[in-house]
Structure formats: C-alpha cells, structure tokens
Amino acid sequence: MRAKEHGFRQPAEWSRHTAVWTAWPHLADEWAEGLDGPRASLAQMITAIVDRGPSGPRGERVELLCASAALEADARAHLGAAAGGVRFHRAHYGDVWLRDTGPIFVTRGHERAAACFHWNGWGGKYLMPGDASVSTWVAGAAGVPAWDQGFVLEGGAVEVDGEGTVMTTKQCLLGGARNPGVDQAAATKLLEDALGADHVIWLDRGLENDHTDGHIDTLARFVAPGVAVAMAPTGDDPNREALDGIIADLRAAKDARGRALEVVTVPSPGLVQDATGAIMPASYMNFYIGNSTVVVPTYRAASDDAAVAAIAALFPDRRTVGVDCYPILVGGGGFHCTTQQEPAP
Questions:
Q1: Do β-strands 61-66 and 111-118 pair in parallel, antiparallel, or remain unpaired?
Q2: Can you give the pTM of this predicted structure?
Q3: 3-state SS of 100-153?
Q4: Which CATH number applies to 4-343: 3.30.870.10, 2.30.30.100, 3.75.10.10, 3.40.50.2000?
Q5: Between helices 36-50 and 69-79, what is the axis angle to 10°?
Q6: φ, ψ of residue 242 in degrees (nearest 5)
Q7: Contact, 337 vs 217, CB < 8 A?
Q8: Which residues are catalytic?
Q9: What is the DSSP letter of 273?
Q10: Which of 3, 50, 214, 236 has its CB surrounded by the most CB atoms within 10 Å?
C-alpha cells in the first residue's frame, strides 16, 4: 500500500511522538575505535531523550533493540535511572542505524502505518545480518501494519515538513546503486506516493567521505513549515563548496505550498578527522527532535558551542542538549542516524 493513495503522510519530526526506536551497538568490526565510546554516547543521547524529571520521564519512551541478554544488561548499566524510560526488545539487527534500516511511520488522523522499504546496505557497501528485516519487525512490535514500498530507501535520505514537502539528494537516490534505472521523475513519484507528499526538493550532493552517499539528514533539515536550516562552512572546511551550494539551492527552492523557504544557517564543524587523519562527515544537522529535547551532536570542534546555541534558538519550546557524537561518527553516522521516531496516534 502507498501512503498517498490512502491519505497517509509522514509527519514532521517536531510532531508529538509516542516513542523513538534505536538499537544498542554490538558489532565490534563496525567500530574502529571500540564499542565503549559509542555505547557511552548513545546512552547520553537516550538519557537526554527520556528527559527524566523528579516525577518520571518528561520526554518520550525509548524502544531499544538489544541482540542478547548480555547486551541488555550492558545497556541498563550505562543508562542507570534513565532505563526507567526505556522499553527493551530482544531483536536481530545489524547495528545502531535504525533511521535507515527501520520503517518510516505515516499517519492519517489517529491511524498509523509503517512504510517499509527494501534494503541493500547503503548501495551494497555495508550488508549486516538482520538489517533487511528490521523494518517489518519494528512495525510488528509497534502494532501497526507494515506496507512494503517495493523500492530501496533509507530513512536518512529523506526529510519532510509534514505539509507535503520532501527534501533529498540526487547523489543518494539517483546514483543507480539503490534503484538502477530510476530517474528523477520516477524517484519523485515513488517518494511522493510512499510518504504522502506533493513536492520533492532535490539537493545535489553530500559531505566528503559520507558512507551514505549524501543523506539529507547531514545536510539540511526542516525546523518549521517553510523554514530549513543548513550549515555555513567554517575555517578549513573540506565541504565548503558543497555547503555553499546547498544554501544557494535551498534559497531558490519552494515548498509544496509554493512558499520560498526561509533558510537559517549554523556554523559547520569544519575539518574533523579520525585517528588515522581521514576526513569524517561531521554534521550538526544530524540532530534529533524529541518531545521535550533536541539532541545536537558535537565533535570536539571549536564551533560546537555556537552550533548548539544556534539550533537551540530554533526550538524555543524545547530544551537543547549537545552530546559528544565523535565516537558514533567513527562508525559512520550520528545521533539522527540511530533514531526513528514513532508518531503519536
């Protein structure tokens, strides 16, 4: 089934959530600097999302996949009191990247369904056991119907405003590795039908050394209807040309309602390298918008504080927390990449 033909639509991320789905890191081969760092960072992200107050959690429930009893015990030890806002699931999955492997939830009034896409390991680059079945498993655990969409898509490749507009990139969806032979017109229709959208904004390309081939959630995000945020390059940013192009393209774009976008910029992290000196695709755009808290990834960079403050100004009705994301980035992604929100009915 397709969302659009039945009046369903993917809500904006700032809409109310019932929960958020994520998973506990466990594949040692996927983490070049070990599992301790990413587990500590993910625990901080979960703690911020749960937002435990004196009378209990104030944010949203976290649905955490754990591949074994030992991993659940490890997660509980890392989370401490925040574990009270977490529901643990024993499941078979590759690793933490639920934004991409999980379903995209769509709604129609109080009804919900899960748009489930085919999986080929980010264009055949990283095939991990269990990832191809995670989306339907999550749909079943959430108690919603799973709708097979018949084509390859990762959730981090699309960004919606909840009013019919989708943003994505040509580099990711038109490169041929995911859906060979699908051109821009055909891809536009696939996205609109699957997500209940009316208009697609196509940006060009992503960050250097981005394993995802230009996922939009590292480049630009909607923060309100008609308002998008992107990064302005700072210092010796290796992505200066790409970031300048994104800002220009956004300023020339219109949304599904015909509005010219208001484009807000925050500073980029600049040059961020791993232990070998390789450039990493660090991005402040990989923030997660929870019910009470916006979690912003930081990278031990000079612009961390300024970026967190700039994003906080965009969400005055939520608290904004910067959390060290460098250990997650070593594995190829950020906090948004590890999460998939389940909208409230």
A1: unpaired
A2: 0.97
A3: HHCCEEEEECCEEEEEEEECCHHHHCCCCCCHHHHHHHHHHHHCCCEEEEEEEC
A4: 3.75.10.10
A5: 60
A6: -65, -40
A7: yes
A8: 337
A9: B
A10: 50
